[in-house]
Structures are given as structure tokens and as C-alpha cells.
Amino acid sequence: MPMPLASLVPAFALQVEDKPFFPHLANNPKNYGKEIFPTKEEYLANGMMPEKRAQFDKWFEQHKNEPFNLNEQLAAYCTNDVDILMAALIAFRKEFLEVSNGFDVLRESMTIASVCMKHFRMNHLKRQHVGIVPEKGYDNADNQSKLALKLLKWYSEKNMVNIRTAHSENGEKKMGNYKLVAGSRKRNLLLRSTDAAGTDVLSAILTTTLSFQQVSQLENNGRRTKNV
Fold first, then answer.
1. What is the torsional sign of CA 145, 163, 158, 212?
2. Is residue 140 part of a domain?
3. Does residue 184 sit in helix, strand or coil?
4. What angle do CA 116, 122, 124 make, to 5 degrees?
């Protein structure tokens, strides 16, 4: 999970000791075998988020006068890391077993991506279908120009027309083997770009006058155009 190790404890409601504060800057050979009194700077307090800093300040005031045995605390700190990670993995495995109908993520997959793909194949892929996911997902799998889509949205709102684009409910309009970048029957507006470049669409949207019928005729005659 994309979170610090300490956040795993509340995230999974783990029954383990919370991750303690540790003076990382005091962890050097000259302090080994000694009892020290670390400063706030050695705890890297200035780099903490506000909520964590408030917790640390309260904790520090309670423990600043207690001797800190680096050898013992270093061993305890590392052990706590392992305890949290182990408990989190067990909790994650248990929850995933429940939602995936028995898929053991720790035994059957090595990465999050493979976990998700196998869960999809096991529990969501229909029979007689091939589990191949497009590189960019099922939504807008083709390259799209953000500039072009913003321009089309602006044009649609400015002229109060419904323009069908890749972000429409049914995606782009298809005519033969081609996909139209945008189309509007009300304005006889048709756009197509072979590379979905924003500059191509910008010039086309301002100059296009061909109708749906004319484009269909061009397609039927086998004529190829760069922008329609």
C-alpha cells in the first residue's frame, strides 16, 4: 500500500505496538553502547507533518530526560518494523482471500499488477474471453490529445451543440475503418486525425465543411484523407 509503515497499524487495525519515534541522526558508531539524550533535531522533528509533529512534541516532553540506550532501542525499533510488516501482510492476505474467493496473494503472485490481473481473470472475466487488457485501459485506449479535447469541449459549449468525442458515452464515431475525433450532425462537423495531434484538430475544427454524407462517399470510394 502506498503509505508509511506506521500508517499500516491504523489502516488494518493491527494489534501491534505503534511505530516509535527514533533519533535517526543519533544512529552512528560513536553512540553505540552508550546511553544518550537525543535532541529534537536528531529525531528530524522539523521534517514531520503537523499532526505527527504535535504527537512528537507531546511525547518528547514526557521522555526527554530519560536515558536512551541506542543499542537496545535500535534492536527494538527494527523488531517493531518487522512486526508491523508481518501483521499487515497477514491482514492483507486475509482480506484478499475473502474478496477474491480464495486467491492467496502471498503464494500466487509477486507484484500488485499480477495480483489484480489474476483476480480479474478468476472472478470477473467472462467464459470464452481472452484476458488481454489494452495498454492504456479500456477507457480511451487510443492516443488522445488533451488540447484537442479541451478545444472540442469549448466549441461544444460555445455553440451549444453536442459533439461526440472519445469522452462521450459511446466513444468516438466510427465510419468504416476510421474513428472520427469529433462529430456533430447539427453543424455537419466532422474531424479525423491520424495521429490525434492537437494542432491538426485545431486547424480542422475551424475549416471543416464536409458533411457526414460526403465523408461516407469518400470512404466508399477508398480515398484517404489526412484530416476530415
1. positive
2. no
3. strand
4. 80
Query: Is 227 inside any structural domain?
Result: no
Residues 127, 133, 138, 142, Cα dihedral to 10°: -140
Q: Which amino acid is at 48?
A: M
DSSP conformation letters of 5-69: GGGHHHHTT-SSPPPPP--GGG-SGGGTT-EE---TGGGTGGGS-HHHHHHHHHHHHHHTTS-EE
Residue 178 lies in a domain: yes
58 lies in a domain?
Answer: yes
Whole domain around residue 53: which residue ranges?
5-91
What's the pTM?
0.52
Which burial class, exposed, middle or buried, applies to 40 when counting CB atoms under 10 A from its CB (0-12, 13-18, 19+)?
middle
pLDDT exceeds 80 at position 99: yes
Q: What is the pLDDT of residues 145-186, one digit of tens each?
A: 777 778 888 888 888 878 777 777 777 777 776 666 555 555
Spatial contact of 150 and 172, defined as CB atoms under 8 Å apart: no
Q: Under DSSP, is residue 113 helix (H, G, I), strand (E, B) or coil?
A: helix
Task: Tell me how long the chain is.
Answer: 228
Contact 162, 186 (CB under 8 A): yes
